[in-house]
């Protein structure tokens, strides 16, 4: 093709692609439209439901999701977003989100994401983004200090607790030298309260063929150290190879914190890798209660924490910490000729050396900005508030006649109503459906000891006493609608 024809086509392509890089006036209009939408959303949160059951069957919306050759006006797109995306289903931005383990969504973190996306700094390799990598490493080092790790540890920001658990378990397998031929004799210990990402990570790392032991629980759904020791010893006597124990620091179902110090003793005695899943509970270490209840967590070989839970950041922010950074480095080592420049210019370890990810979002900015902007004090106060809200709700629910679990260890508590006759499980399912239909509060459920129970999980930063009072009112109304006579007594501690 002649050079002048190539030049003509280049000119045409450049002109046609200009909308991808709008000038300041056009950018300002886009930003104004988006920030106006965001402001309307946030200002309207008090009147929005925590759960909206309608809108799931909008098949006619599918066509609007598919890109077309020509662009669409931003206002039309935002209208679609409001109706089809930010309307139906669970509203995680609501203080009424009391189901599962609520996520965050701090406005300051959103601004950090905006800046990270606009500047598009690459946080995978120090050579390419030294400032971004230093920031992410600083967040890891701060969290490791919170856990109690001393020099020599390492970690990375992940997409969430599932990826962090996967990274930790892959590191444990590599560090403990588990080869394919050893799988059927190797033993992993966890409990029925382990998060589902743990068995998934075992399968993904090739450890699904190991002997998987579920250690019995005590009456507070915590792993029983005596039962763990007995099982490990029995497995060794049977010629098996115990190598990994996974403990909880805040289980999803009940908020249980395993006796980490006792489990660490056993792991040290028996030569096990101790992994602690603190995705939910880890950042309660900012509080005095959290530090007391998680004593011994610093002895773990690896720990997972989720900043999108306990630090209220947007979804997609997890963290893995490993006590000896060399284990992470060996588990994630790589060789590629096109990375040779990065090897020659590195003053710090890069996330690409410490995790499965090479291409990655600059997650550190969404964490660094709110922590530096607000300081730690409001985060600590918010976490302490959630601890008290769980205790407050439990006492008020008891006073209304609900059966409840033990005094909550963190900010999750479970409860159920037992009518004088009929199926208690069906009755509580009806209660849950009634709460979700009302929509102002969202609750979830689980099954404990074969019983259907409702879960109260306070971790959203917008959840305050007001939302708890709304929930109590909704439950009171639902019980009366079912013909239950409620004679509320004075709450007792």
- Order of strands in the sheet with the most strands? 3-9-8-7-6-4-5
How many domains? 2
Percent in helix: 40-55%
Mean model confidence by pLDDT = 93
Report how far the terminal alpha carbons are from each other.
85 Å
The tally of beta strands, per DSSP, is 13
Kindly provide the radius of gyration, computed on alpha-carbon positions and rounded to a whole number of angstroms: 25 Å
| Assembly category | single chain
In the CATH scheme, the class of the largest domain would be Alpha Beta
CATH architecture of the largest domain: 3-Layer(aba) Sandwich
CATH homologous superfamily descriptor of the largest domain: Type I PLP-dependent aspartate aminotransferase-like (Major domain)
| Poorly predicted ranges | none
Structure commentary:
- This protein is an alpha/beta fold and 493 residues long.
- The protein has 2 domains: 114-373, Aspartate Aminotransferase, domain 2 (3-Layer(aba) Sandwich), CATH 3.40.640; 376-481, Aspartate Aminotransferase, domain 1, CATH 3.90.1150.10.
- The chain has helices at 3-17, 24-43, 62-65, 74-85, 107-119, 130-147, 161-175, 197-204, 225-237, 260-270, 288-293, 307-310, 325-331, 340-344, 351-354, 364-374, 376-399, 424-438, 465-481; strands at residues 51-52, 89-90, 154-158, 186-191, 211-215, 241-248, 273-278, 302-305, 318-322, 403-404, 412-416, 444-448, 451-457.
- Helix 5 (107-119) packs across helix 16 (364-374) and helix 7 packs across helix 13.
- The protein is globular.
- It starts with a helix and ends in a 12-residue tail after the last helix.
């Amino acid at each position: 093709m002649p050079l002048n024809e190539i030049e003509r086509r280049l000119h045409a392509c450049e002109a046609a692609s200009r909308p991808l890089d709008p000038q300041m006036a056009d950018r300002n209009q886009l930003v104004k439209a988006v920030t106006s939408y965001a402001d309307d959303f946030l200002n309207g949160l008090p009147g929005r439901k925590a759960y909206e059951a309608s809108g799931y069957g909008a098949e006619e919306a599918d066509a609007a999701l598919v890109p077309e050759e020509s662009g669409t006006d931003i206002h039309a797109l935002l209208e679609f977003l409001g109706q089809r995306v930010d309307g139906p289903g669970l509203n995680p931005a609501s203080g009424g989100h009391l189901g599962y383990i609520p996520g965050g969504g701090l406005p300051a973190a959103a601004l950090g994401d905006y800046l990270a996306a606009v500047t598009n700094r690459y946080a995978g390799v120090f050579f390419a983004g030294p400032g971004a990598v230093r920031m992410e490493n600083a967040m890891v080092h701060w969290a490791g200090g919170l856990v109690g790790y001393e020099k020599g540890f390492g970690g990375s920001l992940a997409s969430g607790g599932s990826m962090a658990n996967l990274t930790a378990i892959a590191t444990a397998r590599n560090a403990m030298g588990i080869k394919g031929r050893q799988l059927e004799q190797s033993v992993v210990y966890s409990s029925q309260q382990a998060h589902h990402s743990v068995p998934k990570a075992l399968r993904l790392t090739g450890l699904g063929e190991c002997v998987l032991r579920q250690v019995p629980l005590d009456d507070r759904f915590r792993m029983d150290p005596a039962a763990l020791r007995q099982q490990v010893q029995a497995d060794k006597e049977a010629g098996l190879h115990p190598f990994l124990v996974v403990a909880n620091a805040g289980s999803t179902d009940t908020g249980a914190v395993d006796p980490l110090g006792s489990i660490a003793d056993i792991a040290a005695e028996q030569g096990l890798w101790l992994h602690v899943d603190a995705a939910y509970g880890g950042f309660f270490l900012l509080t005095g209660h959290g530090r007391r209840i998680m004593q011994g967590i610093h002895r773990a070989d690896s720990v997972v924490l989720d900043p999108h839970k306990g630090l209220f950041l947007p979804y997609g922010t997890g963290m893995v910490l490993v006590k000896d950074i060399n284990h992470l480095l060996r588990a994630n080592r790589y060789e590629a000729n096109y990375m040779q420049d990065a090897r020659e210019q590195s003053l710090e370890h890069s996330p690409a050396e410490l995790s499965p990810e090479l291409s990655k979002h600059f997650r550190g900015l969404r964490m660094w900005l709110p922590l530096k902007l607000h300081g730690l004090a409001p985060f600590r106060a918010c976490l302490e508030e959630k601890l008290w809200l769980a205790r407050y709700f439990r006492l008020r629910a008891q006073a209304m006649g609900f059966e409840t679990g033990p005094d909550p260890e963190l900010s999750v508590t479970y409860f159920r109503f037992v009518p004088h006759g009929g199926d208690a499980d069906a009755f509580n399912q009806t209660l849950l459906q009634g709460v979700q239909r009302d929509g102002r509060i969202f609750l979830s459920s689980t099954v404990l000891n074969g019983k259907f129970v409702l879960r109260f999980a306070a971790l959203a930063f917008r959840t305050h006493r007001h939302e708890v009072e709304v929930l109590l009112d909704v439950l009171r109304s639902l019980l009366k609608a079912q013909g239950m006579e409620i004679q509320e007594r004075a709450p007792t501690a």
